[in-house]
Design goal:
- It is a single chain.
- By secondary structure, this protein is α+β, with helices and mostly antiparallel strands.
- It contains 18 helices and 15 strands.
Length: 560
C-alpha cells in the first residue's frame, strides 16, 4: 500500500539556546516512523524552523509532543527577536507531500489543534487551508499585535481562539498561542543586500510582494469607501515579504515567504529583487534558504539561468544543482550542502548501496566477484548508459560551439532527451539485478504443503515474467536512444563523429545483451502466450537496431 506523507514545519520562538532547540526538535524522533529532516536556528530572529516528515497520525503525535516541550522550555514573557511571533510554537503548518489531499491535511490540522487545546491548555488559531473562516486565512492577520497584544486581543469577541482557553491566563502568558495550518509547500527565502538599511530593504520588499505598499498622496494614506487603505500591488503573486537588518551577518535582507512556488518560483523572486535593488542603487550579494527546498525548485532555477546564458539544459542533475546554488548565491553567507537542504536528498533513507553508486572500478570488481549479480542484464543496461551519454555529450558540445549561437536551443533539446534516456537506463541497471533477486526469493519460499507449493510456483512465475520484462525495457530504451547519436552524427560537431559511432555500438551491445536475457528468461515462463509475445517484440527491436547500426556505418564511411 502506498503511504500517505505529510511534512510538518513548526517555527519555535527560540533561536539562540542550542540545548533548548535540540531538546525540542529531537522530541519528534521519539515517534516511530517520523524523520527529522532539518533544524535551522536564527540568532537575530531568535526563531528556529524545524522540519520533519512521516505518515499523518505519526506526524500529528510528533507535532503535539513538540508543542508541549516548547511550551515547557520557552517563556514568551521573556522572549525577544526580530521575527513577528505570538507563541512558543509560533506556527505549526502541515504540508501534503505524497498521496494525500489538502482537505485531508486540513482535517489533521484540526485534530492537532483540538488535542493542543484540550490536553495542553494552549490556545490558538487555524489559518490558510485549515482556517474556519475567510477572515482568519492570513497568518499576518491572526498574528497582528504579536505576543505583547494577546491580553487585549483575547478580550475581544472577534478574536476568540479556534481551540483552547478563550481568555488570557497564566498558561498563555508563558506559552503564548499557536497558529496551526494546512498549506502548500512554502519556501522561506531571504535575499541579501550590500546594505545595512532595513528601510531600503523594506522598500524592495514592497516593490516585490503581492500586497505591495500603501498608496500615499501628499504624505497621507489613501482610504477607500470601505475605510481600508488603498494599496499599490507589488510585482509578484503569492509572495509575502519584509525587510530587516540581520546583526549576525551584518547585512540587510528581504525576507520572503513564497507561498506557492508554482505561481512565483524562488528564482523569479531573486531575479526581480536584483532588478529592484539595482534600480535603487543597491546590489544583491546572494540569498539564503530557511529550511528545506524541493529538488524541482533548484532544477527550475538552474534551467532559468542556463537559458539566460544560452547554454544547454541537457546536463546532469548534479551540475544543475551546482548552477542553482551559484546563480542564487545560496552559499553567500554560509555553505550550502545539497544533501542536507534538498528535501528529496534528505528523505532518501535507502541504506542499500545501488550499483549505479559504485565507482567504475568497484562496479567491475563487484561484477567479477563470485556473486551471480550483477549479471549480463545489468551490464547491458550500463553499456547503454555509456552509449547515450556519448550522444548527449556531442549535443552539449554542439550547443556550446562558437558560431552556432542560433542553434543552442535545438541541441539543448536533444541533450535533454539524451539525459532522459540515460536516467531510464541507469534505473534499469539496478532493476535488472532486483528482478534476478526476486526469482531467488521465490525459490526460497517454503514448500511444505500444497498451498505453499502453489504460492511458491506463482511467485516464481511472476518473478520470471518481471525478469523478462526488465531486459526487454533495456532493449527498447537503448534502441530508442540511438536517435540521439544519429542526429548528432548528421548535424552535430563533425569532429565528434566517432563519438556518435561508438555510442551507437554501445547501444547495439545493450540491445543484443538484453535480448539474450529476454530469451534465457522467457524459456522458463509457463505462460507461453506471454513468453512468445515478448520474444516476437524483442526480435523486432533487435532487427531494427541492426538496421540502425548499418545506417551508422554508412554515415561513418561517407563522412570519414
Amino acid at each position: 500500500m502506498i503511504k500517505q506523507l505529510i511534512e510538518c514545519v513548526p517555527n519555535i520562538s527560540e533561536g539562540r539556546d542550542i540545548d533548548k532547540i535540540n531538546t525540542i526538535a529531537n522530541i519528534v524522533t521519539t515517534v516511530e516512523g517520523v524523520k527529522l529532516l532539518d533544524v535551522d536556528p536564527g540568532n537575530a530572529t531568535n526563531r528556529t524552523v524545524i522540519t520533519f516528515v512521516g505518515e499523518p497520525n505519526n506526524v500529528i503525535e510528533a507535532a503535539f509532543r513538540l508543542i508541549k516541550k516548547a511550551s515547557e522550555l520557552i517563556d514568551m514573557s521573556k522572549q525577544k527577536g526580530e521575527h513577528p511571533r505570538f507563541g512558543a510554537t509560533d506556527v505549526c503548518p502541515l504540508v501534503p507531500i505524497a498521496n494525500i489531499s489538502m482537505e485531508e491535511t486540513a482535517n489533521y490540522a484540526h485534530i492537532l489543534g483540538k488535542r493542543v487545546g484540550e490536553e495542553l491548555g494552549i490556545s490558538g488559531y487555524f489559518y490558510e487551508n485549515a482556517a474556519k473562516s475567510n477572515e482568519r486565512k492570513n497568518l499576518a492577520t491572526i498574528r497582528s499585535g504579536e505576543y505583547e497584544g494577546l491580553k487585549e486581543k483575547l478580550s475581544k469577541s472577534k478574536w476568540v481562539p479556534d481551540f483552547g482557553p478563550t481568555s488570557y491566563n497564566t498558561q498563555i502568558k508563558k506559552s503564548g498561542v499557536t497558529a496551526i495550518s494546512a498549506r502548500d509547500f512554502l519556501i522561506a527565502y531571504n535575499v541579501n543586500l550590500n546594505s545595512t538599511s532595513s528601510r531600503r530593504a523594506n522598500a524592495i520588499a514592497f516593490d516585490i510582494r503581492e500586497n505591495g505598499r500603501a498608496k500615499i498622496i501628499n504624505g497621507k494614506k489613501v482610504i477607500d469607501k470601505d475605510g481600508n487603505t488603498e494599496r499599490i500591488p507589488g510585482k509578484l503573486k503569492a509572495v509575502k515579504g519584509i525587510g530587516w537588518f540581520i546583526e549576525e551577518y551584518g547585512v540587510s535582507q528581504i525576507s520572503y515567504n513564497l507561498t506557492n512556488i508554482s505561481i512565483t518560483s524562488m528564482h523569479e523572486a531573486f531575479y526581480e529583487t536584483v532588478i529592484s535593488a539595482n534600480n535603487r542603487g543597491l546590489r544583491v550579494t546572494g540569498s539564503e534558504l530557511v529550511g528545506l527546498v524541493p529538488l524541482k525548485a533548484m532544477l527550475d532555477a538552474a534551467d532559468f539561468y542556463l537559458k539566460k546564458q544560452q547554454r544547454s539544459l541537457g546536463i546532469s542533475e548534479k551540475e544543475k544543482v551546482k548552477i542553482a546554488i551559484k546563480s542564487l548565491g545560496l552559499d553567500d553567507l554560509k555553505p550550502f550542502n545539497p544533501q542536507e537542504r534538498i528535501i528529496e536528498y534528505v528523505m532518501n533513507t535507502d541504506s542499500a548501496k545501488k550499483l549505479v553508486d559504485f565507482t567504475i572500478s568497484d562496479f567491475a570488481e563487484e561484477t567479477a566477484s563470485e556473486s551471480m549479480a550483477p549479471g549480463g542484464g545489468s551490464i547491458a543496461a550500463y553499456v547503454g548508459v555509456l552509449g547515450v551519454s556519448l550522444g548527449t555529450m556531442v549535443a552539449n558540445l554542439s550547443a556550446n560551439k562558437q558560431g552556432w549561437d542560433d542553434k543552442w536551443e535545438y541541441f539543448s533539446d536533444w541533450a535533454e532527451k539524451g539525459q532522459k534516456y540515460k536516467n531510464d537506463l541507469l534505473f534499469l541497471v539496478d532493476e535488472d539485478t532486483n528482478a534476478f533477486n526476486k526469482i531467488i526469493d521465490g525459490f526460497r519460499l517454503p514448500k511444505n504443503n500444497s498451498e505453499e507449493i502453489e504460492k511458491r510456483k506463482e511467485a516464481i512465475e511472476d518473478a520470471t515474467k518481471f525478469a523478462t520484462e526488465i531486459p526487454y525495457k533495456v532493449m527498447e530504451t537503448a534502441k530508442n536512444s540511438i536517435e540521439i547519436m544519429l542526429e548528432m552524427m548528421e548535424n552535430g560537431i563533425q569532429n565528434s563523429l566517432s563519438d556518435g559511432g561508438v555510442g551507437i555500438l554501445c547501444a547495439k551491445t545493450a540491445v543484443t545483451g538484453a535480448y539474450f536475457n529476454v530469451k534465457i528468461n522467457a524459456k522458463d515462463i509457463k505462460d507461453r502466450k506471454f513468453a512468445n509475445e515478448i520474444l516476437v517484440k524483442a526480435e523486432m527491436i533487435y532487427q531494427k537496431t541492426c538496421a540502425l547500426e548499418v545506417k551508422m556505418m554508412n554515415i561513418i564511411n561517407e563522412k570519414l
